[in-house]
Amino acid sequence: MPPPKKKPESAKDGKVTLKTIADHLGLTPGTVSAALNNSPAARSIPEHTKQRILAAAQELNYRPNFFARTLRTNRTNTIGVIAEEIGDVYGSQIISGIEEYLRKHNFFFLTVIHRHDPQLLQSYSQLLLSRGVEGFITVDTSITEEPQLPTVAVAGHQTVAGVTNIVLDHKRAVRLALEHLKNLGHKEIAFLKGQRFSSDSAVRWAAICEAADSLSLKIRPELTVQIEADDPTPKVGYPYGKELLARGVPFTALFAYNDISAIGAIWAFREAGLRVPEDISVVGFDDIPAAAYANPGLTTVRQPLVQMGRIAAETLVQRIEGNAKYVPEIAIAPEFVLRQSTAPACLRPAKPSLRSSD
User: Fold this and answer.
1) Are residues 270 and 189 in the same domain?
2) What CATH number did the domain enclosing 56 receive?
3) Rounded-to-integer distance, Cα 104 and Cα 99, Å
4) Are residues 248 and 174 in the same domain?
5) Which structural domain, as residue segments, surrounds residue 24?
6) How far is CA 136 from CA 98, 144, 150, 164, 200, in A?
7) What is the per-residue pLDDT across 74-117, written as a single tens digit (0 to 9) for each?
8) Same-domain pairing of 216 and 283
């Protein structure tokens, strides 16, 4: 019969320490430390002893001293997340995936937002380094120089030593969208190009041009509008939808840079008396949660943003802990999501009425 548990002695200042737990269980502080930190020495500790230690730590409400552990192990279990924007759906979905993985693996993360300011980007990187982060994850952020720590870039497209890029297969993604529109009989297709500062813009537009050429679809400059605004709401697409209509060149479909701009453009079309999809079909990109609840439901190209965040976090943690070799790129497959915003092309491209509010 095992001896009865000792009542823990009152720790100094009321704090429960490794020694408190060790005395409580009749073990050495080193054994308790190895089990709680899951260090290599823990491999020699019997599983039932580990479970006793974990149960006692929970029972006694043990809280490890973060700074002492950092000094002892030379680890902070902290990574830095560098994002362009945290309030937009794209960035928040990716960060949600990062958080989900890190929380389950006992890592913390510090997030900084640079809004494409090069000086902020540099100073924030140094700030995170001074806070002891063990690696970086960047979101929609262009990296041009080799970083000092292991780094994973979501939507990174430049080959930089030490950086693993998590990238969508944009060629496949845009071909799915353009093939869908062509099969519906659309030939006069308008395009909203992404903001120049967005990491995906140039790559996606190049993929669109290549796919359109192979499908014998003509990209007309008068039906192409460059998004310049930086707005995380559907307002970002509204004025550019109006601009397309104001040019007076008929079109039967729109392929927007992302779902947010697509939803904003639909507002502009409806305001002008046009129906979606009867007069104009609309295809978005990303498949954000709002896409399914738009009116009509938005046909779009899905890139699994939460999954991309999880993959980025897992890749970085595995590199930090020496459990995986460095790879320069991880490709993510897109998926085409068919909803109610696309339909067969009408025989004649619809022209806008004059019911615009402006």
Assistant:
1) yes
2) 1.10.260.40
3) 9
4) yes
5) 12-72
6) 11, 14, 6, 10, 19
7) 678 899 999 887 778 888 999 999 999 999 988 989 988 887 77
8) yes
Query: What digits encode the pLDDT tens for the residues 169-216?
Result: 999 999 999 999 999 999 999 999 999 888 899 999 999 999 999 999
Q: How many domains does the chain have?
A: 3
Residues 149 and 86 in one domain: yes
* 270 and 294 assigned to the same domain: yes
- What's the token pair of residue 84? 């362009």
* β-pairing verdict for 299-302 and 335-337: antiparallel
Note if the pTM is more than 0.85.
no
User: Considering only CA atoms, which of 317, 277, 60, 284 is closest in space to residue 177?
Assistant: 284
- Domain of residue 314, CATH code: 3.40.50.2300
